[in-house]
Write a structure and sequence with these properties.
With about 230 residues, the protein is α/β, with parallel strands linked by helices. About 40% of the residues lie in helices and about 20% in strands. Strands 2-1-3-4-5 form a 5-stranded parallel sheet, sandwiched between helices. A 4-stranded antiparallel sheet has the order 6-7-8-9, covered by helices on one side. Strands 10-12-11 form a 3-stranded antiparallel sheet. Helix 1 (about 10-25) packs across helix 5 (about 105-125), helix 2 (about 35-45) runs parallel beside helix 3 (about 60-70) and helix 6 crosses helix 8 (about 190-200). About 30% of the residues are buried.
């Protein structure tokens, strides 16, 4: 089904996941440390990377940022850390999903299929234009009045989600679920922070909005400036 790169230092976990994913039809390459994993990701161009955070040579979050600098390959983070702030941090760094250990090969397979479906949908999406704002999900590039915007992976995903629903009010709960893949509460502030960063890069403020309009008690709406 998919070419998967597994970056995991625990030999027992690595072996079990390789067997389980292979039985489910995936072709699996593996690496026991960050640097050989990065080399494999760049050289072999897998369909998806499963990345452990507790690697012996580099922290997995650092690896994720390095990988995002050279590739848009979907990444599922496998972690024993279940603290919400750490999970949000790795999603903000560019992870597409996460699984908290212990988990089964069947669970991982389901997440792989879901992430690849979302990735395939994004590739098929055309560029979205809202006023002078252009968001291209295939190239993962955005520009405002012809000038490229320097966005983090999470800022881009947030902007694209809103732009694709131009004129609609989107709740913070929906953004957490669809953009951050967080099916639980308590992290609304991370949406506010990212909206603030986006406003700054769009040259506006919450007090003087041009594209991003807060709807008190409901959510946020993106629309083209009037006049």
């Amino acid at each position: 089904m998919a070419q998967v790169l597994l970056i995991e230092d625990d030999p027992a976990i690595r072996g079990a996941l390789i067997r389980g994913l292979t039985e489910r039809g995936h072709a699996v390459d593996s690496a026991a440390a960050a640097l050989p994993g990065l080399e494999s990701a760049v050289t072999n161009r897998p369909d998806l990377v499963v990345l452990d955070l507790g690697l012996p040579d580099l922290d997995g979050t650092t690896v994720l940022r390095m990988l995002r600098g050279v590739s848009a390959v979907p990444v599922i983070v496998a972690t024993a850390r279940d603290d919400e702030s750490e999970i949000v941090a790795v999603l903000d760094a560019g992870a597409d999903d996460y699984l908290v250990k212990p988990f089964s090969a069947a669970q991982l397979d389901a997440r792989i299929r879901a992430v690849l479906r979302r990735s395939g949908d994004a590739v098929a999406d055309p560029a979205v234009v809202v006023g002078g704002l252009r968001v291209d999900p295939r190239a993962r590039e955005a520009s405002l009045d012809g000038v490229a915007l320097d966005l983090t992976p999470r800022e881009f995903s947030l902007l694209h989600y809103l732009a694709a629903r131009s004129g609609q009010v989107v709740s913070k709960r929906e953004l957490l679920t669809e953009v951050w893949q967080l099916p639980y509460g308590g992290a609304d502030k991370t949406v506010d922070v990212h909206l603030s960063w986006l406003r700054r890069k769009l040259g506006e403020t919450a007090q003087e909005p041009r594209y991003l309009h807060a709807v008190r008690g409901v959510g946020v709406r993106i629309s083209a400036p009037q006049g």
